[in-house]
Amino acid sequence: MAKKKTAKSKPEVLDFTKYIRWFWMLFTGGILAIVLLFLFASWGLLGEMPDYTRLENPETNLATEIISSDNKTLGKFYFDDNRTPIDYEDLPKNLVDALVATEDARYYEHSGIDGRGTLRAFAFLGQRGGASTISQQLSRQLFVGVASQNIIERLTQKIKEWVIAIRLERQYTKEEIIAMYFNIYDFGNNGDGIRSASRIYFGKEPKDLDLKESAMLVGMFKNSSLYNPRRNPVGVKNRRNVVLAQMMKYDFIIEQVKDSLQKTELDLNYSPESHREGMATYFREYLRSFMKDWVKDEKNRKPDGTKYNINSDGLKVFTTIDSRMQHYAEEAVAQHMPRLQAEFDNQNTPDRNKTAPFLELNQSEINTLLRNGMRRGERWRILKKQGKSDKEIMASFDKPVEMEIFKWVDGKASYVDTVMKPMDSMRYYKSFLRTGMMSMDPLTGHVKAWVGGMNYRHFQYDMVKQGKRQVGSTFKPFVYATAIDQLQYSPCDSFPRSPITIEANKFGNPEPWTVKNNDLKYSGFQTLKDALATSTNTVTARIMNEIGPQPVVEMAKKLGIEQDILPVPAIALGTPDISVYEMVAAYSTFANKGVYNKPVMVTRIEDKNGTVLYQFAPESKDVLSEEVAYVTVNLMEGVTKAGSGGRLRSVGVDKYNGMYREIMTGYPYQFTNPIAGKTGTTQNQSDGWFMGMVPNLVTGVWVGAEDRAAHFKTTKYGQGASMALPIWGLYMKACYADKTLKVSTSEFEKPSQLSINIDCEVTSDDDTSNTSNNNNEDVDDFSDF
Q1: Among 26, 40, 61, 440, which one is most buried in terms of CB atoms within 10 A?
Q2: How much is the pLDDT for 115?
Q3: Strand, coil or helix: what is 513?
Q4: Cα-based torsion angle of the residue sequence 459, 465, 467, 473 in order, rounded to the nearest 10 degrees
């Protein structure tokens, strides 16, 4: 039987439609999932997102900026963020080019997310560079924060970062985003934002950065902690060179420029911006106190009624300080004080002075002084706050600890790490001479320079306004001005030099007061002009005997002296304690034709948007007639012609065989223009003063130790003409050398009506301004001071 043939089987055909369907379902689902993730992120379901209000006004702490009268930044107030934002127009082109070449080469082509860069990052798992655009990095710093270590949270952060980056691109121009990016970054060492970083690392404004400086700062964006130019200069230089290579790669610079710059060093000009360093530190601390009082006033509130924060609200405080004059004042102190201190130390070696640095004190008195100093110090306050007993705290002062001390080294301020007992460090610092100096325009009351000490980091007590010291003979012009005002005395009127006793009970004096001259010269008569030039005590006492102390006290009060002055005859020789601040304002009244101007330090305050919040109103009052003020100034001109102030000039006056002659002084200042002034030296040479005036600038200088028992043994070095006058001379020489300042060299303006005779010459050559009966002040053999 024949077999039945079977049909041949057809090959089975694969059905791909279901795979294609699944592919499109997964692809569409993935796209939808991504879209939903972005939507969820934008709706805030993945965590809080900034609304448009916050995008328009990102929350960043902005430092309060202190601005000088010549539009320079003196310093800032801040807690953590030393940030002062600047506009895109203030960024140099090479800085922007360096950023774009290094961080986001297609910055001007994308809208917040770089698609090509993102795909590359995914494809190579970040091995060929990341994909974060400048906009993404800004959104992370402003709103997202530090990357989480959790993968899910990190992915969520990245999605939020993308969404915010796109929003930023819609909200701001490319230029505004770049400016925000530079302003927000922390460059380390208190360099918050590009402006602070530029000033700190290179001592200049951002617009003045050169190419290699710009490259270094942009290189720090990778990691400012790792690439810190102070701790890791080699690494920073290498990173800078990478930035330069990127700039060449993207045709911002040519290869020759890259090669030449890569061979250079960083050339830092490190200028730290801290509260204890920089320019005008003492003034800035006074200003901090001023601002704290200002924000407490209910009249000075934000629109929402809350207080301004001087450390984070970005205020701008415009001051009267001139940065040039402030620099010259600080330089004058830095030049003179090391030399003066060296001589003081030379005289107070253990061999020469067993109680160094003190004189006239026994060991018991010294111990008491140091114990009192312990209780007033910061160490005592901190340990007391920790609950330590007095006994425990006192014992801690005799235990050696590591500390940093201040020291003059080769005429410059230096800081030395050492191990020392706190008690020994107290004694060490009490051996230092301190200083205070203020300079003011008498016509406006604007304070131009303020130096409260020689180094704020280690000597924080401000000797301009806080410190009040005995003023010595610098008080005498107040006595003379009162006599001229009340009795119409002339500079040419003569008085005997002989000793005078003001009897008991006169002017409330409990017992007789006999006054002698420091030079022990009593014969003959002396004009008022001579007497003030030589600070003749007996003549000043005679004037006091004529007018009484109460009118002098009233005159001092009108001139702006704030503290109480006991109305006793002895004030004629300068017994009151007065601040440099008050003395400068008082003397300015004489230079300003008898009109007192209260010192002005702040002209206006603005908020971060430029809205004026405060505008100063001048405070002035008539104290003296123009004639009396001018005659008093004329008297003080005699001090710089033939008194101890004569060392300011190249030509002085000398007496030889009973005849007066002109001589070369040998001093380095050599001013030829009219100068009115007065030196002052207090009892035992504890305080040295010089008050100096030209028509549009009045400057006062004080020098002395913290304790009055620390002082020079003789007036050769301890007089005001040696301690304080040189600072004035150095400062004024620098001011005159800077022609942009326009410090006057003219005569003091003479009143149109002058009834008091002033046509008499000064013929003396010494200054005996001292409230004790020591020898007269020595004006010879000290030309270096």
Answers
A1: 440
A2: 60
A3: strand
A4: 130
The ranges of the chain with pLDDT < 70 are 1-16, 18-19, 23-24, 27, 29-59, 114-131, 143-159, 520, 650-666, 761-785
Minimal CA–CA distance to 578: which of 693, 431, 687?
Answer: 687
What pLDDT does 783 receive?
41
| pLDDT on residue 124 | 46
**The predicted structure's pLDDT at residue 635:** 95
- DSSP-assigned letters across all residues of 78-128: -SS--B----GGGS-HHHHHHHHHHH-TTTTTSSSS-HHHHHHHHHTTTTT
DSSP 404-441: EEEEEETTEEEEEEEEE-HHHHHHHHHTSEEEEEEEE-
Say if residues 515 and 573 touch (Cβ distance below 8 Å).
Answer: yes
For residue 669, what pLDDT is reported? 86
Residue 236, both tokens: 């920073």
Residue 655, Ramachandran bin (φ over 0: left; ψ between -120 and 50: alpha; else beta): beta
Asked whether 697 and 761 are in contact (CB, 8 A), the reply is: no
pLDDT tens, position by position, 169-194: 888 899 999 999 999 899 999 899 99
Q: Which residues neighbour 90 within 8 Å (Cβ) at sequence distance 6 or greater?
A: 195, 205, 206, 207
How many C-beta atoms surround the C-beta of residue 467 within 10 A? Answer: 20
pLDDT of residue 263: 95
Domain with CATH 1.10.3810.10 in the chain: 83-272
| Paired residues of 664 in beta bridges | 651
- Tell me the sheet residues that pair with 652: 663
The CATH 3.40.710.10 portion of the chain extends over: 436-605+625-741
Q: What is the pLDDT of residue 164?
A: 78
Which is the CATH superfamily of the domain at 436-605+625-741? DD-peptidase/beta-lactamase superfamily (3.40.710.10)
Question: CB-based contacts of 131: which residues, under 8 Å, 6+ apart?
Answer: 114, 117, 118, 120, 121
Q: Give the pLDDT score at 666.
A: 62
User: In this structure, what token pair is assigned to residue 456?
Assistant: 């704020």
As a whole number of angstroms, the distance between CA 493 and CA 20 comes to 119
Q: How high is the pLDDT of residue 118?
A: 56
Who contacts 594 (Cβ-Cβ below 8 Å, separation ≥6)? 622, 623, 624, 625, 626, 628, 629
| pLDDT of 442 | 98
List, in order, residues 6 or more apart from 775 with CB less than 8 Å away.
518, 519, 714, 715
pLDDT in tens, 493-517: 999 999 999 888 788 777 888 998 8
- The reported pLDDT for the residue numbered 45 is 46
Architecture per CATH, domain 83-272, reads as Orthogonal Bundle (1.10)
pLDDT of residue 171: 83
Cα 115 versus chain centre, distance: 50
User: Cα separation of 539 and 517, whole Å?
Assistant: 9
E strands, 541-582, in order: 577-578
Question: Which tokens go with 734?
Answer: 């620098």
The whole-number pLDDT of residue 424 equals: 92
| Alpha-carbon torsion angle 173, 175, 178, 180, nearest 10 | -70
Other CB atoms within 10 A of residue 283 CB: 26
Cα–Cα distance for residue pair 246/252, rounded to 1 Å: 9
Q: Which of 54, 80, 75, 52 is nearest to 65 (CA)?
A: 75
Q: Give the distance, in angstroms, between the CA of residue 281 and the centroid of all CA atoms in the same chain.
A: 3
Whole-number pLDDT of residue 39? 53
Q: What is the pLDDT of residue 35?
A: 58
- pLDDT at residue number 17: 74
> Residue 689 forms beta bridges with which residues?
680, 702
Give exposure, 729-750, as e/b (b: 16+ Cβ within 10 Å).
bbbbbbbbeeeebebeeeebee
Spatial contact of 744 and 698, defined as CB atoms under 8 Å apart? no
Q: How far is CA 219 from CA 95, 182, 222, 272, 317, in A?
A: 11, 12, 6, 20, 33
Query: What are the backbone dihedrals phi and psi of residue 700, each rounded to the nearest 5 degrees, phi first?
Result: -120, 140
